Amino acid sequence: MKQRNQRYFTLTAVLLAVLLLIVACCNKEKSGSSEAEPTKQEQAASDESQDATFTFKDTNGEQTLPQKPENIASTVTYLTDHLIALGMTPKATVKSQNEDFPLYLKPFLNDVAIIGDQGKVSAEKMLSLGPDLIVTDTNSKEQFENYAKIAPTAMLENGYVAPDWQTAFRATAAAFGLNEKAEEVINTYETHKAEAIQKVHAKAEGKTLMVLRIRNDIRYYGDMDYKWLYDDFGFSRPAVFPVTSAESRYEVLSNEKLPEIDPDYIILINDNEEIYNNLQSLGIWKNMKAVKNNQVFQVASDSWFGGYGPNAATSMLDDLNRLFGE
């Protein structure tokens, strides 16, 4: 009996030892697994941390911010247009030639602060707003150091010298890694443009059109800015037509030159009421074909001259539909 009990206790001890060994191995495997592979919560936290960073590439190279900027300041109107279209609407930007934002951008800029005029930004005002990113272009090279003291600053190439707004817009999108978004925006514009061409083409075909801007002089614009009106919409170039480039975007006209051009239509950008009133009093102006036929159409300077982005371009299409659409 004593021998049987001894055997029983021995077997129990062996089984207990084996059980303890199995439990220890399981715990070790669990511990090793947790070190090699993070939990779902740990992985999510890591991914979120990586997603929070924000990288851009400008004329000064690549820069990474600790998180995506939420308080952006733009110092150039066309860049404000670009940022809106890319889903990066700024919290502060410059006003138009008037006392407010351009009409074509105003619906997007509720509760957005004005930091001055384009080319005359108030550094003090911008500092008081505490932006976490400033977006500017190479026209502001002299101001870059002051901007960089306020916040990280993305300095992009001057978009106005690009051959068209699409090229300038793609460059802005590329700086922020938003190429696919840019193509979506451009495709939407092209669809809208194709619809506008169908409506306008009948009135445009075979008709000469002149784009005239009155500032401190009389300026005649050509293909550098308005090639699309002729090549896409079908308006004809008058026999007298300016040779333009990025360095020389228009030809200054004397009053005596106007009868030589004598277009069917005039798109008029009027930035000087005094000069325009004087022009209207002249027989040379009154005898022009477009004037006699009431075919002089005033359009907004903010979009037709100052605009260089998808929202400005869409606004111009809307104007053409309104003025020439069937």
TrEMBL record:
<feature type="compositionally biased region" description="Basic and acidic residues">
    <location>
        <begin position="31"/>
        <end position="40"/>
    </location>
</feature>
<comment type="similarity">
    <text>Belongs to the bacterial solute-binding protein 8 family.</text>
</comment>
<keyword id="KW-0732">Signal</keyword>
<dbReference type="InterPro" id="IPR051313">
    <property type="entry name" value="Bact_iron-sidero_bind"/>
</dbReference>
<protein>
    <submittedName>
        <fullName>ABC transporter substrate-binding protein</fullName>
    </submittedName>
</protein>
<dbReference type="Pfam" id="PF01497">
    <property type="entry name" value="Peripla_BP_2"/>
</dbReference>
<feature type="compositionally biased region" description="Polar residues">
    <location>
        <begin position="41"/>
        <end position="50"/>
    </location>
</feature>
<feature type="domain" description="Fe/B12 periplasmic-binding">
    <location>
        <begin position="71"/>
        <end position="326"/>
    </location>
</feature>
<feature type="region of interest" description="Disordered">
    <location>
        <begin position="31"/>
        <end position="50"/>
    </location>
</feature>
<keyword id="KW-0813">Transport</keyword>
<dbReference type="InterPro" id="IPR002491">
    <property type="entry name" value="ABC_transptr_periplasmic_BD"/>
</dbReference>
